[in-house]
Amino acid sequence: MFSDRKWGVLVEDRRGGLHRVLGWPLMVLPLGATRYTPPAQALEPDLVPGVGVARGHLNIRPAYLARPTERYRHGVFGSTVEAGALVAVDAVGTVHTLELAADAAFEDRDARIVDVDGDRRDEIVVVKAYADRGAALAVYRLDRAGLALAAEIPPIGRPQRWLNPIRVADLDGDDRPGLALVETPHIGGSIVFYRYARGVLRELARQLGYSNYAMGTPYQGLATIAHFDGDGVADLVVPTADRRVLEVLSFKGGAFRTLYKTE
């Protein structure tokens, strides 16, 4: 339940929809009928240089990485400036900020707004790096109490070791979303596939020999997901470790299989 100066008391349903509560006689109206527009929010002045602002349409609207810091100093993107905080704006315009402890930073350029468990409520997927243990994939949820960590994979285990997310999609054909990434893409990378459920990111499979990033560049999107073989299940499109060959991989049924590759 929320309150807004213009519309009064607002109630959020399980699917993330908003409803306006009127006084006596008691009435609950979907906000679509009232043409409600959440108040605009100005971005923080300490937005990290080079980061993007993600836009959602459910419970999370804009989200972005903020509070520049040089406490990690890995420089994977060609700069030692990373983010010390994650910012998200909810459906009624309230700004929520989560700051990391001094031993970690967000080593990323995008706050990915995605529904990782299929419950019609978005989460935020980001790369979180620890000074003594390297990077981990982290999922944050937004509820009435604000931003909170929903799940996190174990860090790679060594300082200044990084991972680069690909996408969230149903890759094995069981109608449940999963998270694909490349671990250590610039020093002999592996594709790893995870599934989020009940507060845990569980590793389902990994395959060595791929890269979706070139060290020192700002662009993270060298891999993607698309449909290639007409079986109704999304496929991975990712370069090999030397970034000279592009492969199309299927993970249907829970095992990696090469469908096509460039010469």
Mean pLDDT: 86
Radius of gyration: 20 Å
The protein's oligomeric status is single chain
End-to-end span in angstroms? 57 Å
Estimated share of beta-strand residues: over 45%
DSSP summary: helix tally? 0
Count of extended strands:
21
Short structural summary:
It is built from no helices and 21 strands. It is mostly beta strands and 263 residues long.
Describe the fold and architecture:
The chain is globular. 0% of the residues lie in helices and 46% in strands. Mean pLDDT is 86; it is low at 2-7, 23-29 and 31-41. It has no helices and 21 strands. With 263 residues, the protein is mostly beta strands. Strands 9, 10, 11, 12 and 13 form a 5-stranded antiparallel sheet that branches.
Please render the helix and strand layout as text.
Blueprint: E1 2-4, E2 8-12, E3 18-22, E4 27-30, E5 54-55, E6 60-69, E7 82-90, E8 95-99, E9 104-106, E10 112-114, E11 123-130, E12 134-143, E13 146-152, E14 163-169, E15 178-183, E16 190-197, E17 200-208, E18 224-226, E19 235-239, E20 246-250, E21 257-261
Antiparallel strand pairs: 1-2, 2-3, 3-4, 5-6, 6-7, 7-8, 9-11, 10-11, 11-12, 12-13, 14-15, 15-16, 16-17, 18-19, 19-20, 20-21
